[in-house]
Hints:
Largest sheet: 10 strands, mixed
Number of helices: 12
Strand content: 15-25%
Distance between the termini: 60 Å
Number of domains: 2
Radius of gyration: 20 Å
Strand order of the largest sheet: 7-1-2-6-3-5-4-8-9-10
Bound molecules: adenosine monophosphate, magnesium ion
Amino acid sequence: MIRNGSLVAFPTETVYGLGANALNTEAIAKIYQAKGRPSDNPLIVHVANLSMVEELVTEIPPLARKAMKRFWPGPLTLVMPRSKKIPDCVTAGLETVAIRMPSHPVAIALIDAAGLPIAAPSANRSGRPSPTKGEHVVEDLDGLIAGIIIGVESQFGVESTVLDVTGKVPEILRPGGVTREMLLEIYPEVRVDPALESVDANRKPKSPGQKYRHYAPKAKMAVLQGSLSFKKEVALERLKHSQGRGVVLASDELARELPDVDVWNLGSYAHPEIAANRLFDLLRMCDARKIEWILAEGYKEEGLGAALMNRMRKAAGGHVIKEEKQ
Ligand code: AMP
Ligand code: MG
């Protein structure tokens, strides 16, 4: 199907991908159409080996080689200078191309069997939470794609880290499965795109996808940031007085302080990777149950907590309830 220019969804270790032949312009057009994705949001190209990379770039920067050696296959996407072989619609007209070698055995087997690089954004309708289970893909794309390979639940549950290695200093354009702390081990100089942390709407993120409200449930969502006692106080107040059906997404530690009903569990506060793994599934469950408001507990921006908070804030459209500093 991939060789024929059709769309096939498949599991990866991050989230499910919606794949098409990365070298076929018509196949790529189908991705944008099925997802309802804005055409200025470029795709990640998935490869199974280094010779596929060499065809897609003008050169592999030394910075990129370092990261490949340490983190490939895995949840790290590298932005590199593109070659002429890659169609414009894949890169949304940019002079760079984003490439990743997934570690999921099914993903690698698919790319290998196709014998082609596969462009694959997340297999959700644009704007909806990313799919971490095969049934999420069916929910969004049934009837719009040729096939799906259903595997187990995604291991990470958040998308890959996007790292720009075209400059002198490597820059994180999107936090993800390979954390900043892990990147610091090979690049002491690594930086984070300042637009990611800025509330200034005029600052343009370098990763085009970061400017969209993403991963969004239908409910009105807010993220709670502060001490446990602050989060408890706000959540209790909300549960008692809010109109409409709502839920609090809380760590074990916060959930223990709240009544049982209308509190959904994100796992231990010490393990943001569990929360990251559950977040998108819970947000979809909110839609299925017609939840009208969501209060999500914020985590520390460390390790996978950085990717988790990035996705939570986007899902909430930037709505954060913060404890005033004393
Ligand atoms: P998705 O596969 O749906 O998770 O989205 C792919 C992400 O990779 C988007 O946020 C894009 O903005 C980003 N991306 C893809 N290509 C590039 C590129 N050449 N430069 C910067 N970011 C990119
Ligand atoms: Mg996506």
